[in-house]
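In this supplementary section we document a worked example of the pipeline. Step one takes a protein sequence of length 220 as its only input; no multiple sequence alignment statistics are reported here. Step two produces a three-dimensional model, which step three serialises into structure tokens for compact storage. The input and output of this example are shown verbatim.
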Amino acid sequence: MAFGLVLSLAALPAWGLDINLLDNVWQPADSLPSYTVNNVLPGLNLTVAASGGAGTLWWDQHNGFGVRGGWNQDEIDYGEILTITFSQPVFLNSFYLYDLYKERGNRRNWYRERGYARLDGGPKQRFKADPDQIYPGFGDPIGGGLKVVAIGTGGVSEIQFFANKSKNLPKVNHDYQVWKLDVDLPGSAVPEPGTLVLVGSALLGGLGLSRRRWPKRPNR
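The serialised model returned by step three reads:
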């Protein structure tokens, strides 16, 4: 299932039913290859699985899900896949990401971290950090690396998350975590299907959602 990308800071994601991956119900998933929560929404089971890296999930209550191993133990790095599977097709309004930053790479040039999502085995489609989400390791304002990617697509049973391949590893790396899904279930009121939109993380800037302690990362 292909979906196109359009950059827009004005468009807002549709709001439906939130699946919060920061909730403590997901805590047992940490260090397991996969984990399922039944009735995460009424009649909907959700499975999160890791592949690549160490092949196990990373979970914490501040950032959500990543894959253990790779450049950062707690995030989705290149060569790792985080797969989220629904027990029945849903209308996917949006997903929320953490730690997707604008950073400095080789020669102090700026780059924006990039990732990919694949819906139901379709082609990988790209998203990237918003320009105001500056990595705090450089003494710049902490933006939290927040990203909202609005979809507006029905009949979704699976989402796979990938990280971009860097041309300059280990000096430059692309990685992030997944922390919330916004969906509608069959029979519930759903918004009009729309073009995939990338929404600036400024939507969340005033909510104080980033609580992470920021360790110094090597070569960042």
